[in-house]
Amino acid sequence: MKQITLDQVDPSHYDVIITGGGAGGLLTALALTANGKKVLVIEKENRLGGVWHGYWVDGFRVDQGLHVITRVTRGAFVRFLKNYLSPPPEFVIHDGWEFRVYDKTGPIPSSIGETLRWPLTGWRGRLGLVRIGAKIKTMKLDEMKKYKDISFLEFMESRGATNQVMLDVMQSAIYMAAGVPISEASAYEALRTLKDTDRESSKLASAKRLIFGSSEYDEGYVIGGMEGLIKRVIETIDGDYVLNAPVEQIHEQDGGIIGLTVAGTHIEHSTIVSNIPLWSMDKIVQSTLGTTQEFFERWSTIEPTRGVTLWLGLNKTVIGDRKNRVLVHPNPNRWIVSISSFDPSCAPKGKELVAIAMIAEPGKSVDEHISMMKGNGLAKYYPRILDHIEMEHAQVSYATRAKLIPGQTDLDRPGPRTPIKGLYIVGTDTSGSGVGLQQAAQSADGAVHALMEDAVI
Ligand SMILES: Cc1cc2nc3c(=O)[nH]c(=O)nc-3n(C[C@H](O)[C@H](O)[C@H](O)COP(=O)(O)OP(=O)(O)OC[C@H]3O[C@@H](n4cnc5c(N)ncnc54)[C@H](O)[C@@H]3O)c2cc1C
């Protein structure tokens, strides 16, 4: 894809116009390229990628957010990249989870045997965990759907699963995926995250996994980081892009798309895929149709999750392994990963890049978040990290455009189609299971299928 200016745009050159060049928009463009289509991407910022981004700070390469990609062996995002990038990107799988509850550490137990030996609770807690773990692992997706309108905490309480350590560990695990505490997270999304499935597996397969466990960890970091990945995606897409070009209006006439207005310039086209957040689309889409107004108003209240990531460039290797560490106590929900242990190219030789992530707490400043991250757990359990800081960089950003709360689960999302012929929507708030880039990839997949099915390209 090459960059052009707004006055160079000739809309007749493109099969599809994509408004917004975030993960959803770029992955759609990538799939359209593979289908022989040419796109124009119109982006309001001075770079492509949206929150999917990587850059350099004082010799260390950081991502926007701690992008350890989930479901590397089975997920939509990696499947997408493997299908459409040649050669496919290389992922380094992590070495497992380590949850810290005060002075004890333990993994996520994945089988009955592991649960009965779990070091983080006493025997009563372990038995409770076996019971609820068995229920979750063998639960069918259809049953999970029944719990989409209650919180995970309500679900656990209704099952008598109230052991505090177990709830605290689940709190930390669910927090990372849903972006909200278990008292707010949709039980349906939490159950699906814990079962770690998008698709139904047979009862036998679930029971086998439950009894024998699964040693297969499925999260990984991509070599070259997000910076390298996005660069390759942009290079592969067939088409052009315009930066610093906010889409002001998208126009409908007689039920179909006729074009859009960008920085005062009108561009005619009958096929648009919009990656603009759904919460602002009701102000952008100009339509006299009541159904269209209703549609976009309905989705204008979607709320995002916010994450804080603290990047620490250390003057020597302190952690040096590929574990995903989660501090459950005394401060919950801190996620610590040594990124340079996955990809040494993101730190100068002999130095280490460590990322610490947490979900942002409403009303707190960046400095308050940083001192929460450095204080307490980190100071107590990893003081050597604090002794060797050479570079410090904090980011606050939304991690996904829809919290996984009741009313915002994937079952409630609109999908790729809108009431307007020729207008499709993509992004993490439109469709898809999983979180972040998985959702973006699922949404892109959905939009491309819809474009094909409707025979508009
Ligand atoms: C802290 C953090 C950690 C993360 N960790 C992970 C992880 O480990 N694994 C994972 O899978 N995902 C992770 N993600 C999430 C993932 O990066 C995002 O969810 C995903 O990139 C969002 O893609 P999107 O298409 O929904 O949207 P966005 O990034 O919101 O893209 C929308 C684009 O549209 C543009 N736009 C908006 N309005 C207009 C307009 N009017 N005109 C033109 N352009 C417009 C925006 O500038 C942007 O480029 C993380 C994100 C963060 C921030």
What is this structure's SSE topology?
Elements lengths: L1 E2 L12 E4 L3 H12 L4 E4 L11 E4 L2 E4 L12 H9 L6 E3 L3 E5 L2 E3 L5 H5 L6 H16 L2 H5 L6 H7 L5 H15 L8 H9 L7 H10 L7 E3 L2 H12 L2 E4 L4 E7 L2 E7 L2 E4 L3 E3 L3 H7 E2 L3 H10 L5 E10 L9 E4 L6 E5 L13 E8 L6 H16 L1 H5 L1 E12 L22 E3 L10 H18 L4
Parallel strand pairs: 1-10, 2-3, 2-14, 3-10, 7-17, 11-15, 14-21
Antiparallel strand pairs: 4-5, 6-9, 7-8, 11-12, 12-13, 16-19, 16-20, 17-18, 18-19
The chain binds flavin-adenine dinucleotide.
How would you summarize this macromolecular structure in one to three sentences?
This protein has 457 residues and is an alpha/beta fold. It contains 15 helices and 21 strands. The strands form five sheets. A seven-stranded mixed β-sheet has the order 8-7-17-18-19-16-20, with helices on both faces.
Report on this model:
There is one protein chain. Helix content is 34%, strand content 22%. It has helices spanning 23-34, 76-84, 112-116, 123-138, 141-145, 152-158, 164-178, 187-195, 203-212, 225-236, 278-284, 290-299, 366-381, 383-387, 436-453, and strands at residues 2-3, 16-19, 39-42, 54-57, 60-63, 91-93, 97-101, 104-106, 220-222, 239-242, 247-253, 256-262, 265-268, 272-274, 285-286, 305-314, 324-327, 334-338, 352-359, 389-400, 423-425. The strands form five sheets. Strands 8-7-17-18-19-16-20 form a seven-stranded mixed beta sheet, with helices on both faces. A six-stranded parallel beta sheet has the order 1-10-3-2-14-21, with helices on one face. The protein has a four-stranded mixed beta sheet with strand order 13-12-11-15. A hairpin with a 2-residue loop joins β4 and β5 (60-63). The protein has three domains: 2-53 and 225-302 and 405-453, FAD/NAD(P)-binding domain (3-Layer(bba) Sandwich), CATH 3.50.50.60; 56-93 and 304-400, Guanine Nucleotide Dissociation Inhibitor, domain 2; 110-212. By secondary structure, it is α/β, with parallel strands linked by helices. The structure holds flavin-adenine dinucleotide. Flavin-adenine dinucleotide binds at residues 19-24, 42-45, 50-52, 64-70, 246-247, 275-277, 307, 309, 397, 399-401, 427-428, 435-438, 440.
